[in-house]
Amino acid sequence: MNNKKKLNIVLLIMAALLSAGCNADKLKIKPFFNPNNNSDAFFQKPVVLNSANDFLTLHRKTWEFGGTDLKREKYGNKVAINCPTLKNLLNRGYTVVKAYKYKLVSAQSVICSMWKEMAAFKPYSISFMDNLSLNKAFATKAPARFALLISNEEIKKTGSASSWNSLSRISKVEPVSDLQAIYHDDSAGIQRLTLMAKGDYNDDGIEDWLLYMENSVEGGSYSSTAFYIIT
Fold this sequence. Notes:
Blueprint: H1 3-26, E1 32-33, H2 52-60, E2 68-72, E3 76-80, H3 83-91, E4 95-96, H4 102-118, H5 136-141, H6 152-157, H7 164-168, E5 170-177, E6 180-185, E7 189-199, E8 208-217, E9 223-230
Antiparallel strand pairs: 1-7, 2-3, 2-4, 5-6, 6-7, 7-8, 8-9
Helix pairs in contact: 2-4, 3-4
């Protein structure tokens, strides 16, 4: 083998090693999880979560506040003691025993679903989110589904609206932290948006976000919660 061929082989090996090293470094970008994970809604003390798998454990963990009473006509009452039993009972047609607890149970169901999705967040190697922050500009980029939608007419408008802001007309944004902001729209809607997780959600190596939304109306009793995944 001549020297030129040897040099080419060495260069190819070095290039492959450098490429592998770069990819390994990129894959070391671990997913981020907000330490305020809403576990205090079910447990006496907030549960510390350090990895995606912890969310699956939390999802199955028995609640410490005695569970949630649900009923179904002709079938009697049942008690949801963790996320899987809550989801199972709701899917089977069970509903709240007392009407005033509807919002609570709805919020519990959203949190349970959110935890299950957060368990899917993995390390990532590429990010297009560097210039994205929870500010007023975010409302011009986020989908219309982020808007506070109460009536069926408003829901129908999401199909033609280009963004959250184009549907809700955000008038003011109050930064709470790097992970949370409160959005006010011109119809007295108040939306608290919190970044809950960052990582690769759909196995493409690219950073995705999970955001938790708490909706209310100024001076009114309406409230709802939802979560969104940006990929």
